[in-house]
């Protein structure tokens, strides 16, 4: 069991976690500018860190090419994500946090809690498989459940499914979703897509209690759906 002292630095863990998250969500190649945007740093700062990550054997990156984690990088990222997502769930389940409050807290705690603490949290929570936003929680040995999902924004009118995951990087978005009572486990169907990047008309809820409403494209790009087959 790795100790906190033996882990990579906080900055290294932050970078590999973000790269893994960008890869996992499958919205396109991972680029320097994409990493910079997520971490709120300059492109030159990212380039410098990528050189270090390549030297550590955590990242493959050729100049002007895409960024990908190596198998070793994947292992480090999954360990960080396990800590982060279990902490988020514990804050909600045990301490009464709302889902828009936990991300920043977990960003700090994920670097300082021990593996023993994380294992105790997992045991107390019944070894959960997803955090409050539907993000899959890696197992202790680095496995993660594969799920076939699509962004609501990518669906065709008439298709739908169940919301299983919500992007959690923007607390304001999470508060908006909560105010609209849109969350994990809710059925959604795309009714109509307005032209020129306009809002989407969706049908929410079960057949016995459905409602139609318009949602912005930014919201639709944050909702991951397990589609009907």
What does this structure look like?
This protein is an alpha+beta fold. The protein has two domains: 1-145, Arc Repressor Mutant, subunit A (Orthogonal Bundle); 150-227, Ferrous iron transport protein A (FeoA) (SH3 type barrels, Roll), CATH 2.30.30.90. The chain is 41% helix and 16% strand. It has eight helices and eight strands. The protein has helices at 10-25, 32-39, 43-55, 71-95, 102-109, 115-124, 171-179, 217-220, and strands spanning 59-61, 67-69, 150-151, 160-166, 187-193, 200-204, 211-215, 223-227. The chain has a six-stranded antiparallel β-sheet. It has a two-stranded antiparallel sheet with strand order 1-2. Strand 1 and strand 2 (67-69) form a beta hairpin. The longest helix has 25 residues, at 71-95.
CATH topology annotation of the largest domain = Arc Repressor Mutant, subunit A
Q: What summary fits the major beta sheet?
A: 6 strands, antiparallel
Helix tally equals 8
Gyration radius from CA atoms, angstroms: 19 Å
CATH level-two architecture of the largest domain: Orthogonal Bundle
- The CATH class assignment of the largest domain is Mainly Alpha
Following the backbone from N to C, one meets helices and strands in this order, namely HHHEEHHHEEHEEEHE
Structural class: alpha+beta
Organism: Thermobifida halotolerans
Family: Belongs to the DtxR/MntR family.
Protein name: Manganese transport regulator
Pfam families: Fe_dep_repr_C (PF02742), Fe_dep_repress (PF01325), FeoA (PF04023)
């Amino acid at each position: 069991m790795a100790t906190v002292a033996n882990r990579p630095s906080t900055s290294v863990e932050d970078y590999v976690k973000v790269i893994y998250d960008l890869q996992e969500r499958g919205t396109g190649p991972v680029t320097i500018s994409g990493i910079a945007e997520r971490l709120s740093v300059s492109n030159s700062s990212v380039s410098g860190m990528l050189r270090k990550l390549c030297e550590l054997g955590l990242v493959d990156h050729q100049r002007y090419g895409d960024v990908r984690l190596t198998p070793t990088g994947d292992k480090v990222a999954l360990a960080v994500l396990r800590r982060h997502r279990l902490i988020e769930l514990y804050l909600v389940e045990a301490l009464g946090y709302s889902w828009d409050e936990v991300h920043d807290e977990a960003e700090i705690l994920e670097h300082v809690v021990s593996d023993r603490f994380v294992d105790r949290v997992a045991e107390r929570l019944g070894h959960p498989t997803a955090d409050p936003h539907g993000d899959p929680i890696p197992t202790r040995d680095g496995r993660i459940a594969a799920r076939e999902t699509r962004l609501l924004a990518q669906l065709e009118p008439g298709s739908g499914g169940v919301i299983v995951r919500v992007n959690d990087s923007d607390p304001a978005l999470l508060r908006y979703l909560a105010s609209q009572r849109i969350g994990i486990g809710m059925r959604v169907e795309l009714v109509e897509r307005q032209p020129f990047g306009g809002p989407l008309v969706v049908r929410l809820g079960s057949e016995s209690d459905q409602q139609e409403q318009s949602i912005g494209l930014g919201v639709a790009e944050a909702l991951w759906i397990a589609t009907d087959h």
